[in-house]
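Re: that chain you flagged

S.,

Sorry for the slow reply, it's been a week of failed gels. I finally had a moment to sit down with the sequence you sent. For the record, here it is as I used it:
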Amino acid sequence: MSSIKPSQCRIIFVLLLAFVAWPSHASLKLRDMYFNPKSNIQLENITNISETESDFVKVSVSELHFNKETAKFDEIALSDPTDLVISPSRIVIPPLSTVPFRVISKPSDKLKIYRVRFTPISPKIELGFTQEEIDSAVVATGVTIKMAMGTIFYIDPIKKQYDTNVERKGKEVVVTNNGNSMVIIDQLKSCKGEVCKSEGRFLLRPGSVYKFAGEVVKLRINEGEKSKKWEL
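Prediction finished late last night. Pasting the structure tokens below so you have them in one place:
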């Protein structure tokens, strides 16, 4: 298992988040930024928060590979389209409505990371929509600009091994993922006295290290279904 220099760690998180678009004015909403399917077939939902317009959405899937030489994630086409399937791949979401979709994934011997993009498109029969769906939809008049939304799906290995080390080294708290599965650093806060500042939520891929400076650092480590809180 290759390791990543601590100085690259925050860059890696930023790069991974760059594949997740959550515009504040977007009409689409999912329950989370990160998804880790617990079964080969899982039901999720997508919501249209617009009060006036239907959303016609095209779904696309790509795989993310971490490039050790550039310390960046490369987005590539799926070598096998059945590795991760979002069904249906065309979704019609009426105003203020929630529509289910299925996530169908294949087991893997190693961690797989995918980018799933939900892109609003103009409704056309040749794009997979029915005439009934087009006729019944509420479509805005004039010009409307809508933003695509991306999220991260990751599939842990069949034989998951968690080995996360959390320790303080001087003024820094160091978190190392020595396992083979994704770890989530959650509820991260830096505190000085009674005042704490929330620092976000991050994915920590196998072989990577996260460093964070703070007088007192609070965090929760999520390893699959198990979690543990730390204060250092």
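What I noticed first: The longest helix spans residues 6-18.

Talk soon,
D.
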